[in-house]
Amino acid sequence: MATELSLISVGIVFVVLLLLKPLIFGQRGKPLHEHHNGSTSKVSESGLWQRLSQFLPWSSSPSLPGPPGFFLIGNMMELTHDHLPIHLTNLAQRYGSIYRLKCGNTTMVVLNSSEVIREALVKKWSDFAGRPVSYTGDIVSGGGCSISLGDYNEKWRAHRRLVHSALQRCCQKSLHEVIERQALHLRKVLMDYDGSAVDLAEDFTVAASNVITTLTFGKEYDKSSVELQQLHSCLNEIVALWGSSWISALDSFPLLRKLPNPVFSRLLKEVTKRDDIIREHLNNYKSQDNKSEDAITGSLLRGIDQHQNSEEDVLLTDIHVHMATVDLLIGGTETTAAWLSWTVAFLLHRPEVQTGVYEELCTVLEGRYPKYSDKHRLPVLCSLINEVLRLRPVAPLAVPHRAIRDSSIAGYFIPKGTVIIPNVFGAHHDPAVWSEPYSFRPERFVEGGSCSTRALLPFGGGARLCLGEAVAKMELFLFTAYLLRDFQFILPNNSDSLPDLRGVASVVLKINSYKPLETNIIY
Ligand code: HEM
């Protein structure tokens, strides 16, 4: 605690110095906001008053609304709330579907309705396809070589294309089979619990992770595997540390990087550990005699060879295979696993929904196991999937985007470099679109219900659309169908407390630990 306090005080001194630099030297003003009528108001030459006033509590932009900021730190405190998606959604009630926050020298624009998110991410994708330039992002992404954190440029596009086609090829060949295998394995694990109340989070993580490791290197792990545990503990730690305000402060206040920061040191250690583990996996894959040629890793390595021999200007190397593996593991494990835990928790809250899905499965499948092609014949199951994606989008703030050129959203001028936060959680709770937005009502999506899926954006959109969307959709469908065909989830006898549905929000929105009882349904 003492270290943290001294770090804060020394940090503040540095931040003061940092902010005084532009005050003293001044900068040429830039057009800031476009009014609704499209005219552009120029900020005149920035003087001392202008610079100071943007941090004063009473000042807020006349056009783009937002909460008043504090001297020096701007709106930084808004970003330290324990459940940021809920807090940003509450701010939208006051400031509307688009507002700005300032943090150090960064301006962020928060988008809170599906209409404005679509405008930025889909309609104007080429203006907003960038990722924030980030010191800490560079460290976790191998110098910007990952797909998720790499900035938008020719090399990134070639990298994403390569991984996308490898993933697509692999999905067409074996995804269904790989998920079915993991779903059957999960079934066995649950059977073996034999009626005891258990937190299933870890089993869901192992199932989701095995789908990805089978697709990438043709390998699956047992829950007790030391290798698997090491990999997960390190990936989880990186995601959790990277989401902490101790780390994001380093991006907004560069001078803090000069100070000792134990959280940052831990992040560096975990990144080194992660890279050692992934390197070992890739080397093992390369040295196998009977390696799975269908695996994504093989496809990527071949793709990179072809790329290097082609006439293309951009050069992709082994680091891109390495970081793509990290992307798929991080993107594809905690998200799907968290979604499964949320689903079971919501079903405990409304057991009649579980009965409805079960009856539909019995009628349509007549005892057999489901296929993804049954999707259109199982509307009740699909409505459950959509409602959980709506209420608890597991990537609640997506991944921040960055304006790569001057543009506009909802008529507001957005200067190049602005960080865009798509508040998917907020859009999914928008009372203008969803009736009773906070209630779990899957029936809203069933035919004759009031809602369409158009306003759902759990996977983002545009150039940065979730790369694993197709994998995730098949997993959510098959895992849920297998689970609800064979098990009924109920509260343990001795516990009448339902799982808490608020959750813990970091990069991924997870539910707090709870222990349902799974009763086997014997066919
Ligand atoms: C329920 C499951 C999932 C959800 C809700 C989800 C959601 C998202 C969202 C919201 C984004 C950010 C989009 C943006 O920046 O606008 C994203 C990015 C990404 N996701 Fe997923 N995801 C899921 C599963 C997966 C899976 C299974 C994989 C891998 C197989 C994956 C890989 C990725 C990657 C690589 C990116 C970065 C894309 C880029 O920056 O171009 N995700 N995901």
From TrEMBL:
Pfam families: p450
Any one GO molecular function term: steroid 17-alpha-monooxygenase activity
EC category name: oxidoreductase
Residues annotated for heme binding in this entry: 466
Lineage: superkingdom: Eukaryota
UniProt record, GO biological process: hormone biosynthetic process; progesterone metabolic process; steroid biosynthetic process
UniProtKB keywords: Endoplasmic reticulum, Heme, Iron, Lipid-binding, Membrane, Metal-binding, Microsome, Monooxygenase, Oxidoreductase, Steroid-binding, Steroidogenesis
Family the entry assigns: Belongs to the cytochrome P450 family.
Designated name of the protein: Steroid 21-hydroxylase
Protein source organism: Sphaeramia orbicularis
Gene: LOC115436017
